[in-house]
Amino acid sequence: MSRYLHEAEFSHAYTPKTGVLLLNLGTPEAPTAKALRPYLKQFLSDRRVVEIPRAIWWLILNGIILNVRPKKSAEKYASIWSKEGSPLLVHTRKQASLLKGLLGMQGQQVMVEFAMRYGNPSVEDVIQKMRAAGMERLLVLPLYPQYAASSSGTAHDAVFRTLLKMRNMPELRTIRHYHDHPGYIAALAASVREHWQKNGRGDKLVMSFHGVPRYTLDKGDPYHCECMKTGRLLAEALELSSDDYVVSFQSRFGKAEWLKPYTFDVLSSLAKQGVGRIDTICPGFAGDCLETLEEIAMEGKELFLTSGGKEYRYIPCLNERPDWIAAMAELVTANLGGWITTPDDANMRQLRARACGAKH
Ligand SMILES: C=CC1=C(C)c2cc3[nH]c(cc4nc(cc5[nH]c(cc1n2)c(C)c5CCC(=O)O)C(CCC(=O)O)=C4C)c(C)c3C=C
Ligand SMILES: [Fe+2]
Ligand SMILES: [Fe+2]
């Protein structure tokens, strides 16, 4: 048995293509405990996500977490599941399709696909499929604006691991982050302004980012800094003073200290201080998902209102906003520099490939 993935016999007669691969986290196949178990097992067995010694973690994961969490998480997923499926998958699929359409309209001849770090469609399957269709240059864009080892880092690992198994590797470029990309910041700012126009303006804007364990910052992970920078740039774009907004971190998992302040602490203390109306936004998520729709839009709201707050409004993620898709296209185009992009280039390469025929 070959140690490499299967590939068709080499032939000159193909059109070399450039591919863009969007990567997201992944989501269970259904909002049930049965579907949650393998998803959580794969996710939480990732050494980039949980760094505690393997033997101890194996016992905790298999002995406790996988017996308790699937049922609880399934209930949460059930509360946000749509007719089309899990919001994370639905938005990622639409983003890939819209990006492909926009790049095509801009004259770029590129394939655009998406894959999930955990679950399906898997990174390996999608890269193999792209390779079989002639992809020989690959640009990878994780859908996490801020780099964390536990999100973008592990997404890149999955790509590198796939390439390690390939005989005929594509050229590879990766986008590490886009936390300060002007188009991304402008789209966030526009979404806040539109929300204010429609619903009125709250007394405070809470910018909630997914958390990570505090020790990752001490060990050199840039995630905290990148979240703070996104927060500052968004505040500047909205002309907010430091009193008008707060950056906080959500989704704490386990007993260890995570990045602070915790979003739920911020929400209850704002309510107790008498800040009546707040707007919340999750700039670290390119699309709405469990962590935004259930934790922030639902749980956060309940906490704020039961702690004495008056009005709580959640601002949706960028999702399929045209300004966000345009920002993605700009980011991708800048990172495709020098690779085939136009139909003319592609035709030239095809002619050259034909001219060299099967002589060697
Ligand atoms: C935005 C980037 C993300 C980072 C960084 C991140 C780190 C991280 N997450 C966990 C544990 C869980 N996260 C879960 C869901 C989840 N996480 C992200 C993004 C980041 N996580 C997203 C987009 C989602 C939603 C997925 C969806 O299907 O909608 C979950 C699963 C849900 C649950 O059971 O609560 C866990 C678990 C850790 C431990 C971690 C960093 C160390
Ligand atoms: Fe997470
Ligand atoms: Fe910092």
UniProtKB/TrEMBL annotation:
<protein>
    <recommendedName>
        <fullName>Ferrochelatase</fullName>
        <ecNumber>4.98.1.1</ecNumber>
    </recommendedName>
</protein>
<keyword id="KW-0963">Cytoplasm</keyword>
<dbReference type="Pfam" id="PF00762">
    <property type="entry name" value="Ferrochelatase"/>
</dbReference>
<feature type="binding site">
    <location>
        <position position="210"/>
    </location>
    <ligand>
        <name>Fe(2+)</name>
    </ligand>
</feature>
<comment type="pathway">
    <text>Porphyrin-containing compound metabolism; protoheme biosynthesis; protoheme from protoporphyrin-IX: step 1/1.</text>
</comment>
<keyword id="KW-0456">Lyase</keyword>
<dbReference type="InterPro" id="IPR001015">
    <property type="entry name" value="Ferrochelatase"/>
</dbReference>
<comment type="function">
    <text>Catalyzes the ferrous insertion into protoporphyrin IX.</text>
</comment>
<dbReference type="InterPro" id="IPR033659">
    <property type="entry name" value="Ferrochelatase_N"/>
</dbReference>
<comment type="similarity">
    <text>Belongs to the ferrochelatase family.</text>
</comment>
<feature type="binding site">
    <location>
        <position position="291"/>
    </location>
    <ligand>
        <name>Fe(2+)</name>
    </ligand>
</feature>
<dbReference type="InterPro" id="IPR033644">
    <property type="entry name" value="Ferrochelatase_C"/>
</dbReference>
<keyword id="KW-0479">Metal-binding</keyword>
<keyword id="KW-0408">Iron</keyword>
<dbReference type="InterPro" id="IPR019772">
    <property type="entry name" value="Ferrochelatase_AS"/>
</dbReference>
<keyword id="KW-0350">Heme biosynthesis</keyword>
<keyword id="KW-0627">Porphyrin biosynthesis</keyword>
